[in-house]
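Instructor's aside before we start: the two examples that follow are unrelated to each other. I chose them only because their records fit on one page, so don't look for a connection. First example below.
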Amino acid sequence: MIPIDELSSVVLEEAIGIHREFGPGLFESVYESVLAGRLRRRGLKVDRQLQVKAVFDGEVYDPAFKIDLLVDDRLVIEVKAVESFNQTHAKQLLTYLRLLKQPVGLLLNFSGVTMKDGIRRVVNDYRPH
């Protein structure tokens, strides 16, 4: 199992390549689908549109939410195609990380002129090893 920081680098490398090829302007589902395919081709396990249950006050809510991509059972990826990030996007990802008990997630916005401006790393009490 590769370290989470290396896993994040692989995802970012593929996201940048996809953005260079397609550019901005497509639906989120296109970027998500292509990214999932590219990561699988690199030998990574990728779950797409993963339904996740939540437990609150002793009751199970299934499904409570869906995450765009879960890579290698530990890196949560939220794909966006919006004009710009807002605070809700990062809060949403942080909540997903907390509920899934995962340390790191990536918020990727493919609508910018460059992919560099569309990358946010969100951490949930992350400690690098």
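Example two begins here.
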Amino acid sequence: MSIVTSSHPPAQPPAEMMEAMNKLADREIKAGRMLDTGGLMPLALGAQVRIIDGKLSVVDGPFVEAKEVIGGYAISELRSKEEAVALAKEFMQLHLDHMPGWEGTCEVRAFFDGAPGECS
């Protein structure tokens, strides 16, 4: 799974960026490597369910303490961490090419498959 975070306020990406992201996603879907992808709505429309001091609470967004926001994700089925990092680098390059000044992170994580010490 790739998770994209940024400290920039959420905004609609430029049309060129959306076109480039769609091309990359289409290529990966057709190759059978990308299983799902999506962007997330603004924090103001979300909620957090927390456990603090042994008690559950619900806090509606926006969240004052949010320094970075998850903007989107992709779920891919790849052969190795190296393949996943290469795809994340390609995706982040689109940001460099189409969104000057944007800063963020694409975190690459494997799913735990339930077997001790194994990820998928």
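The chain has two helices and six strands.
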